[in-house]
Design a protein that fits this description.
Radius of gyration: 15 Å
Number of helices: 5
Strand content: 15-25%
Distance between the termini: 31 Å
Oligomer: single chain
Length: 167
């Protein structure tokens, strides 16, 4: 179940959601983010809350590039596993990113990393498997926030290349 706005709890908790909402509006995106009644920290939780297939969830996976400590964002289809070797072949050697690194580099907490509006612009790749669907849903800065977008619009919004990055 979803509605349009978060309940009025702690405003700072919803600051990232508000930021993504503003960014999408400024970009002329036709769909405002939705606030889910339940947190959707995993693709399965998001798919269940929205009544979708897991593959329609555009998950944001962050890696740490070893050469320069840059964040590498892979926006991948929720039913696919990111292939770290394929990603490394495109961007250089990568390693896992812990929660502190993700928060510092993106401004978002794990479970709510949006594909846009990062504190430091990441190196971004978009999974070609997302193009199986007319529309996908991505995190909107908070585990309860999501937004709908066509894969081609996601490509345009992020300026990221589409690549084969999953197993």
């Amino acid at each position: 179940m979803a509605n349009d706005t978060p309940d009025a709890a702690d405003q700072t908790l919803h600051e990232a959601f508000a930021q993504v909402t503003r960014l999408l509006a400024e970009a002329g995106h036709p769909h405002a983010p939705r606030w889910l009644d339940v947190p959707a920290r995993t693709c399965q939780e998001a798919a269940e809350a929205l009544g979708l297939q897991t593959g329609q969830i555009a998950k944001s996976v962050i890696f740490r590039r070893k050469a320069d400590d840059a964040a590498v964002l892979v926006v991948a289809s929720g039913d696919k596993r990111v292939d770290e070797k394929k990603v490394a072949a495109l961007v250089g050697a990568i390693g896992r990113a812990d929660a502190g690194f993700v928060k510092a580099k993106t401004g978002y907490s794990i479970g709510g990393v949006a594909p846009v509006g990062h504190a430091t612009p990441p190196v971004t790749l978009i999974d070609r498997e997302l193009f199986r669907f007319d529309e996908v849903w991505a995190a909107a800065g908070h585990p309860n926030g999501v937004f709908c977008i066509a894969p081609a619009a996601l490509e345009k919004l992020t300026g990221a290349p589409v690549a084969d990055v999953t197993q």
